[in-house]
Amino acid sequence: MTNLVPIDKLFSVIDFLGVFVGALGGALAAVRDTRHKYDLVGVTGLAVVSALGGGITRDVILQKGPPLAFVDVRYLMAALAGAVIGMIFAQKIGKNTERAMILMDAAALGLFSVAGSTRAINAGMNWLPALLLGATTAVGGGSIRDVLGGYTPQIFEHGELYAIAAAFGAATFLVCDAFQLPREVSTAAGTACGFGLRLLALRYQWKTRAIRVE
Predict the structure, then answer these.
(1) 3-state secondary structure of 207
(2) Nearest-CA neighbor of 29 among 70, 71, 86, 78?
(3) How many Cα neighbours within 13 Å face the side chain of 34?
(4) Which of 30, 42, 88, 170 is most buried when burial is the number of CB atoms within 10 A of its CB?
(5) DSSP line for 157-186
């Protein structure tokens, strides 16, 4: 029996969904921001940065040609679509849609962390830079958005397991790759682990603690 959806195509779908959801989330955050009043350029810019900032940062560090987001126009199209929909429906998006976005974001986090590590390994880097670039790909966009919006990046403050989940997904992929498992198996395992830890953290409200004690 053949697979209904080949694994590479499935990951591509999740990849573009992740970009779309990242842009949608960035647009919603900008529109709903009570501290600033962003215009069209501001909301669009923050949305695109949220969606593509991590991958572009990774590709600039790797110095292996233009960033993937500029080579494959579908990434920009997905990001712009998310930005537009976020602006139009910011006040109409309810709880059910936000829950679906959380699920897609968690899946994208797992995939982006693995994608970043994969590109680093393919560029000849060893496991530690690959781990860091995997996590950067997953969380970099949101961090850049926070900085541009005048906030401390959320991943640096105590709270939800987001960067840790991304690093866990990247680490799982790298361990599997070190044991020379098929790349499809390593990718699936890393994505599932990042995705799973993120969902478990949300389900059971696992949070990090602040280092400084009041």
Answers:
(1) strand
(2) 86
(3) 0
(4) 170
(5) SSSBSSHHHHHHHHHHHHHHHHTT--HHHH
What the block records as the tokens of 49 is 């940065």
Secondary structure in 3-state letters for 64-81: CCCCHHHHCHHHHHHHHH
Instruction: Say which DSSP state 132 is in.
Output: H
The tokens for 16 are: 């573009």
pLDDT (tens digit, 9 = 90+) per residue, 55-75? Answer: 999 999 999 899 999 999 999
Q: Is the pLDDT of residue 108 over 70?
A: yes
The closest of 200, 52, 196, 63 to 138, measured between CA atoms, is: 52
Q: In this structure, which long-range contacts are made by residues 204-207, counting pairs with CB atoms below 8 Å and at least 24 apart in sequence? A: 206/160, 206/161, 207/158, 207/159, 207/160, 207/161
- What is the sign, positive or negative, of the torsion defined by CA atoms of 18, 24, 27, 28? negative
Confidence of residue 122 (pLDDT cuts 50, 70, 90): very high
Predicted local confidence at residue 5, as pLDDT: 53
Q: How far is CA 106 from CA 7, 88, 98, 167, in A?
A: 18, 24, 12, 13
Are 169 and 195 in contact by the 8 Å Cβ rule? The answer is: yes
Cβ atoms of residues 17 and 76 within 8 Å: no
Residue 107 and residue 100: Cα distance in Å, rounded? 11
| CA nearest to 27, candidates 116, 111, 149, 115 | 149
